[in-house]
Amino acid sequence: MRRTVAARALIVVVALTLSATLLARQNQPAQTGKLAISVEYTGKGAVDEAHRLWIWVFDNPDSSTWPDSTPLAVAMLTENGATHKFTGLPKQVYFGTAYDEAGGYDGTAGPPPAGTPISVYGMADGGMAQAVGTGGDDAAVKATFDDSFRMP
After folding, report:
1. What digits encode the pLDDT tens for the residues 8-33?
2. How far is the CA of 94 from the CAs of 7, 8, 134, in angstroms?
3. Beta-carbon contacts of residue 81 (< 8 Å; ≥ 6 apart)
4. What is the 3-state secondary structure (H, E, C) of 52-71?
5. pTM of the model
6. Cβ within 8 Å of residue 92, ≥6 positions away
7. Among 47, 73, 98, 112, whose Cα sits 20 to 30 Å from the Cα of 65?
8. 140-145 vs 33-41, strand pairing mode
9. Would you say 143 and 95 are in contact if contact means Cβ atoms under 8 Å apart?
Protein backbone atom coordinates (compact mmCIF):
# COMPACT_ATOMS: atom_id res chain seq x y z
CA MET A 1 0.00 0.00 0.00
CA ARG A 2 2.81 2.42 0.86
CA ARG A 3 4.48 1.73 -2.48
CA THR A 4 1.24 2.51 -4.32
CA VAL A 5 0.87 5.85 -2.52
CA ALA A 6 4.55 6.67 -3.10
CA ALA A 7 4.28 5.72 -6.77
CA ARG A 8 1.19 7.88 -7.21
CA ALA A 9 2.90 10.79 -5.48
CA LEU A 10 5.92 10.41 -7.75
CA ILE A 11 3.69 10.37 -10.83
CA VAL A 12 1.95 13.56 -9.66
CA VAL A 13 5.29 15.31 -9.04
CA VAL A 14 6.62 14.31 -12.47
CA ALA A 15 3.39 15.39 -14.17
CA LEU A 16 3.43 18.78 -12.42
CA THR A 17 7.10 19.30 -13.31
CA LEU A 18 6.49 18.47 -16.97
CA SER A 19 3.43 20.74 -17.06
CA ALA A 20 5.38 23.63 -15.54
CA THR A 21 8.23 23.13 -18.02
CA LEU A 22 5.88 23.08 -21.00
CA LEU A 23 4.01 26.15 -19.73
CA ALA A 24 7.28 28.04 -19.25
CA ARG A 25 8.34 27.20 -22.81
CA GLN A 26 4.97 28.30 -24.19
CA ASN A 27 5.31 31.66 -22.41
CA GLN A 28 8.75 32.32 -23.90
CA PRO A 29 8.68 34.49 -27.00
CA ALA A 30 9.56 32.70 -30.21
CA GLN A 31 13.05 33.35 -31.52
CA THR A 32 12.35 35.37 -34.65
CA GLY A 33 15.63 37.18 -35.27
CA LYS A 34 17.13 37.00 -38.73
CA LEU A 35 20.71 37.70 -39.74
CA ALA A 36 22.57 37.41 -43.03
CA ILE A 37 26.29 36.77 -42.53
CA SER A 38 28.70 37.24 -45.45
CA VAL A 39 32.17 35.75 -45.07
CA GLU A 40 35.25 36.75 -47.03
CA TYR A 41 38.45 34.79 -46.51
CA THR A 42 41.52 36.77 -47.67
CA GLY A 43 44.15 34.15 -46.85
CA LYS A 44 46.20 32.19 -49.35
CA GLY A 45 43.83 29.24 -49.90
CA ALA A 46 40.93 28.90 -52.32
CA VAL A 47 37.39 28.48 -51.04
CA ASP A 48 35.60 25.61 -52.82
CA GLU A 49 33.65 22.37 -52.19
CA ALA A 50 36.64 20.78 -50.45
CA HIS A 51 37.88 23.88 -48.59
CA ARG A 52 34.80 25.45 -47.06
CA LEU A 53 34.06 28.43 -44.89
CA TRP A 54 32.20 27.65 -41.67
CA ILE A 55 30.03 29.95 -39.54
CA TRP A 56 28.94 29.20 -35.97
CA VAL A 57 26.37 31.40 -34.21
CA PHE A 58 26.27 31.55 -30.40
CA ASP A 59 24.11 33.28 -27.81
CA ASN A 60 26.92 34.59 -25.59
CA PRO A 61 30.49 35.86 -26.07
CA ASP A 62 32.13 33.11 -24.02
CA SER A 63 30.79 30.36 -26.27
CA SER A 64 32.14 32.00 -29.39
CA THR A 65 35.51 30.46 -28.57
CA TRP A 66 34.09 27.00 -29.53
CA PRO A 67 35.47 24.40 -27.12
CA ASP A 68 32.75 22.77 -25.04
CA SER A 69 30.06 24.99 -26.59
CA THR A 70 27.00 24.16 -28.61
CA PRO A 71 26.19 26.73 -31.30
CA LEU A 72 22.67 27.96 -31.96
CA ALA A 73 23.24 27.49 -35.68
CA VAL A 74 25.93 26.32 -38.10
CA ALA A 75 26.37 27.09 -41.79
CA MET A 76 28.86 26.17 -44.47
CA LEU A 77 29.82 28.20 -47.55
CA THR A 78 31.60 26.91 -50.65
CA GLU A 79 32.10 30.32 -52.29
CA ASN A 80 34.29 33.10 -50.97
CA GLY A 81 32.25 36.19 -50.10
CA ALA A 82 28.99 34.22 -50.04
CA THR A 83 26.19 34.91 -47.57
CA HIS A 84 24.12 32.62 -45.36
CA LYS A 85 20.79 33.80 -43.94
CA PHE A 86 20.04 32.57 -40.43
CA THR A 87 16.55 32.62 -38.92
CA GLY A 88 15.06 31.85 -35.52
CA LEU A 89 17.80 33.70 -33.61
CA PRO A 90 17.63 35.65 -30.35
CA LYS A 91 17.86 39.47 -30.44
CA GLN A 92 21.65 39.46 -30.37
CA VAL A 93 24.22 36.83 -31.25
CA TYR A 94 27.97 36.28 -31.51
CA PHE A 95 29.64 34.34 -34.26
CA GLY A 96 32.88 32.80 -35.37
CA THR A 97 34.17 31.67 -38.74
CA ALA A 98 36.80 29.24 -39.98
CA TYR A 99 38.45 28.24 -43.24
CA ASP A 100 38.85 24.49 -43.83
CA GLU A 101 42.43 24.77 -45.05
CA ALA A 102 43.18 21.02 -45.06
CA GLY A 103 39.79 19.95 -46.44
CA GLY A 104 37.46 17.31 -45.07
CA TYR A 105 36.46 19.08 -41.84
CA ASP A 106 32.84 18.65 -40.75
CA GLY A 107 31.96 21.82 -38.89
CA THR A 108 29.22 20.10 -36.93
CA ALA A 109 31.35 17.38 -35.31
CA GLY A 110 33.36 19.58 -32.98
CA PRO A 111 35.69 22.57 -32.95
CA PRO A 112 38.05 23.18 -35.85
CA PRO A 113 41.35 21.27 -35.76
CA ALA A 114 44.41 22.97 -34.28
CA GLY A 115 46.01 25.30 -36.80
CA THR A 116 42.78 26.09 -38.70
CA PRO A 117 42.43 29.77 -39.71
CA ILE A 118 39.59 31.19 -37.60
CA SER A 119 37.98 34.44 -36.60
CA VAL A 120 35.58 35.52 -33.89
CA TYR A 121 33.62 38.58 -35.00
CA GLY A 122 34.88 41.70 -33.22
CA MET A 123 38.08 40.17 -31.86
CA ALA A 124 40.41 41.70 -34.45
CA ASP A 125 43.41 43.39 -32.89
CA GLY A 126 42.81 41.77 -29.51
CA GLY A 127 39.28 43.10 -29.01
CA MET A 128 36.37 41.30 -27.42
CA ALA A 129 33.74 39.28 -29.26
CA GLN A 130 31.17 41.72 -30.59
CA ALA A 131 27.43 41.18 -30.32
CA VAL A 132 25.47 41.48 -33.54
CA GLY A 133 21.82 42.50 -33.45
CA THR A 134 19.35 40.43 -35.36
CA GLY A 135 16.15 41.73 -36.83
CA GLY A 136 14.12 41.53 -39.98
CA ASP A 137 15.15 40.69 -43.51
CA ASP A 138 17.64 43.58 -43.66
CA ALA A 139 19.85 42.55 -40.70
CA ALA A 140 23.26 41.77 -42.19
CA VAL A 141 26.94 41.72 -41.31
CA LYS A 142 30.16 40.95 -43.18
CA ALA A 143 33.12 39.13 -41.67
CA THR A 144 36.56 39.23 -43.27
CA PHE A 145 39.50 37.20 -42.03
CA ASP A 146 42.81 35.70 -43.13
CA ASP A 147 45.44 33.25 -41.91
CA SER A 148 46.80 35.45 -39.12
CA PHE A 149 44.77 33.88 -36.30
CA ARG A 150 44.57 30.11 -35.97
CA MET A 151 42.81 27.62 -33.74
CA PRO A 152 45.13 26.81 -30.82
Report:
1. 332 322 222 333 333 333 444 558 89
2. 46, 46, 10
3. 38, 39, 40
4. CEEEEEECCHHHHHCCCCCC
5. 0.78
6. 33, 131, 132, 133, 134
7. 47
8. parallel
9. yes
- Strands 118-120 and 92-99 turn out to be antiparallel
The H-or-E segment that residue 15 falls in is: helix 2-27
With a CB cutoff of 8 Å and minimum separation 6, the contacts of 73 are 56, 57, 86, 88, 89
Dihedrals phi, psi of 33, to nearest 5 degrees: -65, 140
Strands 118-120, 83-89: pairing is unpaired
CA–CA–CA angle 93, 94, 97 (5° rounding) = 135
Give buried/exposed letters for 58-95 (b at 16+ CB in 10 A, else e).
bbebebbbbeeeebbbebebeebeeebebeebeeebbb
**pLDDT tens, position by position, 102-123:** 999 999 988 899 999 999 998 8
* 40 Rama class: left (phi>0) / alpha (psi -120 to 50) / beta: beta
